[in-house]
Structures are given as structure tokens and as C-alpha cells.
Design a protein that fits this description.
The chain has about 700 residues and is α/β, with parallel strands linked by helices. An 8-stranded parallel barrel has the order 13-14-17-20-21-22-23-24. A 7-stranded mixed beta sheet has the order 25-26-27-28-33-30-31, covered by helices on one side. A hairpin with a 2-residue loop joins strand 2 and strand 3. Helix 10 packs across helix 11, helix 10 runs antiparallel to helix 13 and helix 13 packs parallel to helix 15. The mean pLDDT is about 95.
Length: about 700
């Protein structure tokens, strides 16, 4: 039966369910003809209906559109796009390839999909992914609303949806392991730990086959559907299962007081380089979506290290990005975004950096009214050497940033490097040497010691070198500069002295993270010493090397308690809720910080220094801390600030102590009877003033 059609409308872009049918709209400036393919089900080898769009009746400007009567939500669809195949001019049209709608809100066909078929010549219809028409209004949110937790009260947990519960020892039923539903079952774990926001590695639909032969793109930085949840993360295999299960997750996390931040990859796609597959953008309008080599449009500019670079500053691509972000906020209720390789978004259509005052994609995102109040976090660099840490916060009014220097300088100090104490002081204070604006919330610095990209915390103190042999690239991949130290032996060891030192170094790194000004971020599993056996680029390791080992929660329970107490300690003090840069003074009545060394008021800023002390004071909140950091290989005796007779210093943290006693609740803090404190080699101590 031939379906009745009308001209349709150019807006909204994508597939939109209306009263008596569906409106389809697709942008392609250079296409000469387009066919809309309608399939009876997700895995049908051929379409049941092929509707050819007329360039005269079904095109407005460069939007191709048509209204199809008698269909609705659940309709499976895709396109064939005709046009010039001239790579030298940036055109790669191939009507043999069935391509996805960039605006598809659900994607089906994973069971038949073949990346190789999309890369080779010939028709791939029977092996292609397809879109699913969605009516997003069919869901009961139960009055769910954004949490709007301020950065000053946020504790971010970077995690992988699949890896969190995929391990058989997760206690999650087999059908829910590695899914949104599996994560829902583990929300009590996150809440008890004290987490207020999860930052999810990409959950947009990605291509798992975008990896070395025999391996899987586990992390998901290989997006092909920016509007669609990844079907592989759904235990519900029905067509709308991934959509509803993700919304169930968001709603459940919100009920627990936990925000949802999505890691979004608007810098490249799964289509790769010149020999990569034609899945969507490449076959719809290659010249619009990608940046090319200035001298040769047949070659993609690769500012991402992944083969291609999205042309985010192009009006059409920029509109897609904004429409996507709005969709995830308004229809999926997410609370924010972490922008992978965000420096790419500050490049113009030719790839030149344009991060400055004035209009660009960064300002378009943060000034959008739908996105107002959401968390916008930039990874302020790209793979081509554009390092913009400080500039997103400097030139934008709402973006925050992953503070890469915090990671590097804290690691270097704890390792025992020289010429690092002055840098460490800046990181503890909120990095005023990087973030210069006086009106900037100090918590827009997202502080972290580890993240998905690099060593885990356990491996940071267990390996001098990366060990990525399992990735199939002869250990060439991954970062070579890790600021790591194996404490004397590479990898696993039975040496008790080294094992004790490694644990102490872990506690030191965590302590500095949670006593610094800024918003702390913890990597999944660091609280229980998750290891990747020295692999610092486990993007392709969908196995126990990357998964959360739930047996470690019991085995490393004392460390887990240490982390929970650190978070609780941070939560309870107004000193760590400050939004302005702390004053550095000894007399201020406002919250302030003062620097010391082993002697009061005499910090050692010399190149050879490996120690630092500082006091944090909030007179109005009646809070007074003294913190001593010793990265030297011998113990040091630190003077303590004098107190009134009715006051006494009490120990909250001493990382050299037994793990079960290394951190305590404020009520259990132990009194210090001396005017000095012996800080053991490679350890950190936090004291608080309490009345006698």
C-alpha cells in the first residue's frame, strides 16, 4: 500500500510525530536527490516503502522535507542521499549507502549492523543502522525537576554505565548487568559514598566496532547518534527500551539527590577518516559537517586523534549541537554536560582557534535559555595541541573546566618532584594563576587526580610506565607523561613495605583533592583501588580489566571508608563551600588562607622544597584548619599555630596512620597535646580546632 504524502515542513529537523502522521526534515546543501526509506521492522533487509523527495516540492532552502500520513511512533526509517562523489571537493555522496538521520532519537538495527559493509563499495541496506520515530511525550516523569546543585556543594563521580555493573560479582541480575537498569540498583552505593553527581562516559549511540580488529570501543567516544541513548546500555530490548530505561535512570538518580552529567563528543564522529565508513554525516553532507585539510578537501583535519573533526562553528552543525543539548535537558532531564575535547568547539570552519570575546559556539551554548543553570564542563584541550585551560572560564560566563594542571601538579608533588610547591599552592587555592577573573566562582575549577583517560589511582602509584600491549598498538597509544611512581617495583608486588607506601600515596592524593578549593571529581573505582594493570588507555577493553570489581568493596573497605569520610568532612565545612577566591592573609575576618612551612609563616618556596603547610580559617563559621603536606622521604616536625587556652588542635586526617584510623568523623577527632606535629615521610595531616 502506497502511503499518502504531503510536502511537509522544514521545521522541526528530524522525524516529528504529529496528529495524523510524521514530518521528516533533513539538511543537505549539496544533495541532488533524497530517498526516504521506511522499514517494517528494525532488521528488515529492504524497505517496504521508498519515497523519493522532489527538489522542487520537498525542499526549502537546503532542507529536504516530507509529511507521511498514516505512520507514527515506532516507524523505522533511514535515507539514501544522491549527489556528487568528488572527494577533492569534499563530496562523498554514495546512494548505495543507507544513512542515519542525524536527529534520530532512537536507533535500531544493531543485530544486523556491519561497519565493514558501510566502509566498502556496494549496497549495505541489509546491514545498516536505522532510525526509529519517537514521540518523546509518552513518559511519566512524576514531577521530576532539575536538582541545580551548586558547584560548591558538588561531588562528581566519573563513571562508565556498562563497566559499573558488568562484572558478574556486581550482584546485578545477568540481564541487567552493564545497563541503565543495573546502575539504578547501585544508586544506594553512590549515595552512601556521598556522591552528588555522576558524570557518565558517552551514552549517546556509538559504534562499538570503531576500534582495532578484535577489540571493542568500550568507552563510547565514537558517536553516531547524538540524540539517541546507546541501545547496548538497555536491559529492555524493545524498540523504545533504551529511551525509557535511560529516563528511568535519570528519575531514580534525581530522587536520590544525584545529578546526571553527560560526557558529550561534539568533536568527531564514528565515521573516521577517508577510509572510514559512511554511516550518516559523511553521506548526507560531508562538506557541511567536517573540517578538511586546507590544501586537500579529500583529507579530514584530525584535531581529535580520531580521524575527523566536526565543524562545530558551522551554523548547521552548531544548530544540531544546540538542538541536541536542549533535547537532553528538556526531554531527558539531564543536569549538565562535560564536553570532550572542547577546544575543538573554539575552532572556526577552517580549524583555526577563535576562542575570544564575541560570538562562537561556546557562547551560543552557554547563553541558550534552555541550558541556563545546567552544568557545562569543558575539557579545554584537543589532540592537536590546542590547550585552552583557563580560557573557557576567562571568556565565558558559565563554563567550568577540567583543571588539567591540578591533576599534573598534585601528582608531581606527591611523587616527590622538586620545583613544584609554588604550583601546588596555586592548585590548592583554586588556581588563581589560571583563572584570573575576579567574578569567577572558584568552584568552576573541576579538580581531579585521575579520570577515565590515563592511570587509575591504584596504577598511578604502581607503575612508572604505561602497559597498553593489550590494545593492539604495540604500546604506542596512550599518554607517555603520567607523573606516576611505582614506589620501587613495577606492577603488583608482595613487598609489604611497598604496598604500605602505595596505599599511603593514594591517601595523600585523595586528601589533597578534597581539601583544595574547587569542585572535586573522583574516578569510578578509585575508592576501592580499581586497577587496569598499568593500561592507561583502556578505551577498547570491555572486560574485567576495566570493569568495577565489586569484591574490592569488601577487600578495600577501610579505603572506601576513608574516601567517604573525606567527602563528609568536605561537606560539613563552610570553608569548602566558598565561591570566591580565599584571601591570602593573616588578619582578615573573611574566610582566608595563610601559608606556612615547618615553621609558622615561613613557607619554603625553594626549588628543593617538598613540603607545605597552610591554615584555612572561616571566622564567621568558627572553622579553623591546619594542613601539613610532606612529600619528603623523611619525617618533618611542623610548628602548630598557637590557640586560646580553651581551644585545642584535633587530628582529623593522618595518612601515615593505620587505614582504619587515617581519617575520622569530626566528632571523633583526636586531641593533639603538643605545640608541634611530627608529619611522617610522604604523608598528609589535617587538624581542626575544637574547644577543650
Amino acid at each position: 500500500m502506497t502511503l499518502k504524502t504531503d510536502h511537509g515542513k522544514s521545521h522541526p529537523v528530524g522525524a516529528t510525530v504529529l496528529a495524523d502522521g510524521v514530518n521528516f526534515s533533513l539538511f543537505s546543501k549539496y544533495a541532488t536527490a533524497i530517498e526516504l526509506l521506511l522499514f517494517d521492522d528494525a532488521n528488515s533487509p529492504q524497505p517496504s516503502q521508498i519515497i523519493r523527495l522532489s527538489p522542487h516540492e520537498n525542499r526549502t532552502f537546503f532542507y529536504w522535507h516530507i509529511f507521511v500520513h498514516g505512520i507514527g511512533a515506532g516507524q523505522v526509517y533511514a535515507y539514501r542521499v544522491y549527489g556528487p562523489d568528488n572527494p577533492d571537493q569534499g563530496h562523498r555522496f554514495d546512494p548505495d549507502k543507507v544513512v542515519l538521520d542525524p536527529y534520530a532519537k532512537a536507533i535500531v538495527g544493531a543485530e544486523i549492523y556491519d561497519r565493514q559493509a558501510a566502509s566498502e563499495k556496494g549496497d549495505n541496506c541489509h546491514q545498516a543502522l536505522r532510525g526509529l520515530v519517537v514521540d518523546t511525550g509518552r513518559y511519566d516523569w512524576e514531577d521530576d525537576k532539575p536538582l541545580r546543585t551548586p558547584y560548591s556543594a558538588s561531588f562528581i563521580y566519573e563513571m562508565h554505565v556498562g563497566g559499573f555493573t558488568r562484572n558478574p560479582n556486581s550482584g546485578v541480575s545477568e540481564e541487567k548487568r552493564g545497563t541503565f537498569a543495573g546502575l539504578i540498583e547501585k544508586i544506594p552505593y553512590l549515595k552512601t559514598l556521598g556522591i552528588t553527581a555522576v558524570e557518565l562516559l558517552p551514552i549517546h549511540y556509538f559504534d562499538p566496532a570503531s576500534a582495532m580488529p578484535g577489540l571493542t570501543n568500550y568507552w563510547g567516544y565514537s558517536t553516531i547518534g547524538f540524540f539517541a541513548p546507546h541501545a547496548g546500555y538497555s536491559s529492555d530490548r524493545s524498540p523504545f527500551g533504551p529511551l525509557n530505561e535511560f529516563r528511568d535512570l535519570v528519575k531514580a538518580l534525581h530522587k536520590a539527590g544525584i545529578e546526571v552529567i553527560l560526557d558529550v563528543v561534539f568533536n568527531h564522529t564514528a565515521e573516521g577518516d577517508e577510509i572510514g565508513p559512511t554511516l550518516s554525516f559523511k553521506g548526507i553532507d560531508n562538506r557541511t559537517y567536517y573540517i578538511f585539510d586546507p590544501e586537500d578537501k579529500s583529507i579530514y583535519s584530525n584535531y581529535t586523534g580520531c580521524g575527523n573533526t566536526l565543524k562545530g562553528s558551522h551554523p548547521i552543525v552548531g544548530k544540531m549541537i544546540l538542538d541536541c543539548l536542549r533535547y537532553w535537558v528538556s526531554e531527558m532531564h539531564v543536569d549538565g554536560f562535560r564536553f570532550d575535547l572542547a577546544a575543538v568547539l573554539s575552532r572556526n570552519v577552517d580549524g583555526e582557534p577563535i576562542l575570544q570575546k564575541g560570538y562562537n559556539m561556546i557562547w551560543a551554548i552557554e547563553s541558550d535559555p534552555v541550558l541556563a543553570g545546567t552544568k557545562l564542563i569543558a575539557e579545554a584541550w584537543d589532540a592537536a595541541g590546542l590547550y585552552s585551560v583557563g580560557q573557557f572560564v576567562e571568556f565565558a560566563d558559565w563554563f567550568s573546566e577540567w583543571n588539567g594542571p591540578f591533576r599534573d601538579d598534585v601528582r608531581a608533588f606527591v611523587r616527590g618532584d622538586t620545583s613544584i610547591v609554588t604550583k601546588l599552592a596555586a592548585r590548592i587555592l583554586g588556581s588563581p594563576d589560571i583563572y584570573h577573573r575576579p567574578d569567577t566562582d572558584v568552584n568552576r575549577s573541576i579538580n581531579f587526580v585521575t579520570c577515565h583517560d590515563g592511570f587509575t589511582l591504584n596504577d598511578l602509584v604502581s607503575y612508572d610506565e604505561k602497559h597498553n600491549e593489550a590494545n593492539g598498538e604495540e604500546n604506542r597509544d596512550g599518554c607517555n607523561d603520567n607523573f606516576s611512581w611505582n614506589c620501587g617495583v613495577e606492577g603488583e608486588t608482595n613487598n609489604e613495605e611497598i604496598k604500605t607506601l602505595r596505599l599511603q600515596q593514594i591517601k595523600n592524593l585523595l586528601t589533597i583533592l578534597f581539601i583544595s578549593q574547587g569542585t572535586p571529581m573522583l574516578l569510578m573505582g578509585d575508592e576501592v583501588r580499581r586497577t587496569q594493570k598499568g593500561n592507561n588507555n583502556a578505551y577498547c577493553q570491555d572486560n574485567q580489566l576495566s570493569w568495577f570489581d565489586w569484591s574490592a568493596v569488601e577487600q578495600e573497605f577501610d579505603l572506601w571508608c576513608f574516601v567517604r569520610r573525606l567527602i563528609d568532612f568536605n561537606k560539613k565545612l563552610a570553608l569548602f563551600r566558598q565561591e570566591k577566591l580565599l584571601e591570602v592573609t593573616y588578619t582578615s575576618l573573611e574566610p582566608h588562607l595563610s601559608w606556612h612551612g615547618v615553621q609558622l609563616s615561613k613557607p619554603d618556596w625553594s626549588e628543593d622544597s617538598r613540603s607545605l603547610a597552610f591554615s584555612l580559617r572561616h571566622p564567621k563559621a568558627n572553622e579553623y584548619l591546619h594542613i601539613m603536606l610532606n612529600a619528603y622521604w623523611e619525617s618533618l616536625n611542623f610548628q602548630l599555630p598557637p590557640l586560646f587556652p580553651e581551644e585545642k588542635w584535633h587530628r582529623v586526617i593522618d595518612t601515615a596512620g593505620q587505614l582504619s584510623e587515617a581519617a575520622c568523623d569530626l566528632d571523633a577527632a583526636v586531641a593533639v597535646e603538643s605545640e608541634t606535629y611530627r608529619v611522617q615521610a610522604r604523608s598528609a595531616v589535617v587538624l581542626i580546632v575544637k574547644p577543650v
